[in-house]
Amino acid sequence: MIEAQSWSFSALSTLATCERKWHMRYRAGLEEEPTSAQALGTALHAAMQAWWDHRSVPAAEAALDQALEAGHIDPGQHADACWLIGRYARYHLTGPLRDFRVVEQEADLEGTLAGVRIRGRVDAVLEGKDRLWVVERKTGKSWPEALKTPISAQPGIYLALARERWGPDVGLINEHVRTYRWIRDEHKHPPHDSVYVAFEPFDASLVQRAEAWIRLVLERAQDAVEGQRATVPVLNPWVCRSCPYQEQCLDADLEEVEL
Questions:
Q1: Going by C-beta distance under 8 Å and a sequence separation of 6 or more, which residues neighbour residue 220?
Q2: In which domain, by residue range, is 70 found?
Q3: What is the C-alpha to C-alpha distance for residues 100 and 123, in angstroms, rounded to an integer?
Q4: Are the beta carbons of 136 and 58 closer than 8 angstroms?
Q5: Angle at 198 between CA 197 and CA 203, to 5 degrees
Q6: What SS3 class is residue 177?
Q7: Which of these, 90, 79, 77, 44, lies nearest to 63 by C-alpha position?
Q8: What pTM does this model have?
Q9: 148 contact partners, CB below 8 Å, separation of at least 6
Q10: How many domains does one find in the chain?
């Protein structure tokens, strides 16, 4: 049953973190209301995509205007996001990606890893001097460890899938935009203080690590995925406090029996 499914990295990551949350989102299909931070991140992603499409701050700000008009972000978030996207633009006009060309935005990937079909979507594909680069953009309060040390399975998965689609001359760019530092002091905090870019060229060990992680996640949860037992909640306060399914979690055993 597992081998017959197509898995996204997000689904695998959720299953690895909490089986019950995976059940709620991917099997029961419960709606997930985005948090304020998630809504801001979505708006910033749209603005960054608009900037790369047009190399224009007004185009990026128009995307933020749409998010404000739709009620996805509030006026305070809109003001902060407009300020941040201006810094983002100034960084990339002189930064390491200034001469890169956009090949595709929101590019879909799919292939086979560890004997199962894996799919994903990268934020963009850029063309550099000697190769294509797939781009994974993230927003958050601090630099994630995955951008400093390749401890996550995600780089290996995306690199393998990208090579399957575009060939061997492809790498991964992790781009992280800080969303907590709203200090309007350009002298103390120049634009590069808000944007971090890391280049990840292809490394076979990253793919091997990703395949080992996929096998571990699916083997550990195989009987739950195949419906032989109920999924188990992680019951970790650091994970549970931000989970959108807290209220339904204790009733999930009954729901799973009815599926």
A1: none
A2: 36-215
A3: 15
A4: no
A5: 155
A6: strand
A7: 44
A8: 0.85
A9: 198
A10: 2
**Pair 183, 80 in one domain:** yes
Q: Is 133 a member of any domain? A: yes
In whole angstroms, give the CA distance from residue 167 to residue 163: 4
If you count them, how many residues does the chain have? 259
Backbone angles phi, psi at 125, to 5 degrees: -125, 120
Q: Could you read off the pLDDT tens digit of each residue along the chain, which spans 259 residues?
A: 566 588 999 999 999 999 999 999 998 888 888 888 889 999 999 999 999 999 999 999 999 999 999 999 999 999 999 999 999 999 999 999 999 999 999 999 999 999 999 999 999 999 999 999 999 998 887 665 544 444 578 889 999 999 999 999 999 999 999 876 565 666 566 777 788 898 988 889 989 999 999 999 999 999 988 888 888 888 888 888 878 888 888 665 545 544 4
Do residue 23 and residue 50 come from a single domain? no
Residues sharing a CB contact under 8 Å with residue 205, sequence separation 6 or more, in sequence order: none
DSSP letter string, 108-169:
EEEEEETTEEEEEEEEEEEE-SSSEEEEEEEEESS--GGGTS--SSHHHHHHHHHHHHH-SS
Amino acid, res. 176: H
Amino acid at 179: T
Q: Which of 52, 154, 57 is nearest to 102 (CA)?
A: 52
User: What is the CATH classification number for the domain harbouring 124?
Assistant: 3.90.320.10
